[in-house]
Design a protein that fits this description.
The chain is α/β, with parallel strands linked by helices. A hairpin with a 2-residue loop joins β2 and β3. α2 runs parallel beside α4.
Length: 233
């Protein structure tokens, strides 16, 4: 779905969102409450400039509009693979964005991520996966690493990983597998305004990813291991 179609369905034709290259930004009115909306489009590659632009809006919202909800619209092919961005410290810029989102959550801002098109690799990890909850449209494409790349990193045969992906969501891309693992809380189907309303009302600040993964059978051990670590601390 195109970003302007999405925001029109969510906020009406006079939403006030604006596009600057691959960067989306706006203050929108939703059921009498102002929301800060930031995001990316055109399968954006997240480089230093784009990461810092998003972080700036998050910090401005924290300082100027305490408690205002933040909606992250996600469409990214991952981090920018350019020498310039590597030399400028893309890793630190993306970490800064993630820390700003975490700071917003710690200061009482409800932060909701929505994958409306594509979410890959580090561009997704440092945005939607750090929000209070990340939701997705059913037609969205989500993956962190393709099986050939996973094979190179793990030194395991592609055939083995392909076989594992058929029964274990951890090894497989796709929005349904991320729902099973708890990384995506819910799919927005039908009335998108109702879906946003529910997402905001359910954003309690509790990180339920591991628990949801256990309940849904996609990550059976993460919640138990995390609890054992906490109990031993």
């Amino acid at each position: 779905m195109k970003w302007n179609t999405l925001v029109t369905q969510l906020f009406g034709p006079f939403h006030g969102m604006r596009e600057a290259g691959d960067f989306l930004q706006g203050e929108v009115l939703f059921e009498g409450e102002l929301l800060t909306v930031i995001g990316t489009t055109n399968h954006a590659s997240i480089g230093v400039r784009l990461a810092l632009a998003q972080a700036r809006v998050v910090l401005d919202t924290i300082s100027q509009h305490p408690g205002r909800p933040i909606l992250l619209l996600i469409d990214t092919q991952g981090q920018q693979l350019r020498r310039r961005d590597e030399l400028l410290g893309i890793n630190r810029a993306m970490a800064h964005l993630g820390m700003c989102i975490d700071l917003a959550r710690r200061n009482g801002h409800r932060v909701i991520g929505l994958v409306y098109d594509q979410a890959l690799s580090g561009g997704f990890i440092t945005s939607g996966l750090i929000a209070d909850a990340c939701d997705a449209l059913p037609e969205a494409e989500i993956r962190v690493m393709r099986i050939p790349a996973m094979a190179r990193v793990t030194k395991l045969p592609e055939a083995m990983l392909t076989e594992l992906s058929e029964s274990n969501p951890v090894f497989a891309p796709g929005v349904g597998n991320y729902v099973a693992m708890g990384g995506v809380r819910a799919l927005w189907e039908g009335n998108l305004q109702e879906a946003l309303r529910a997402a905001l009302s359910e954003a309690t600040g509790e990180d339920r990813r591991a628990k949801d993964g256990a309940l849904r059978g996609g990550r059976k051990l993460a919640a138990d291991v995390a609890q054992r670590v906490l109990d031993a601390a």
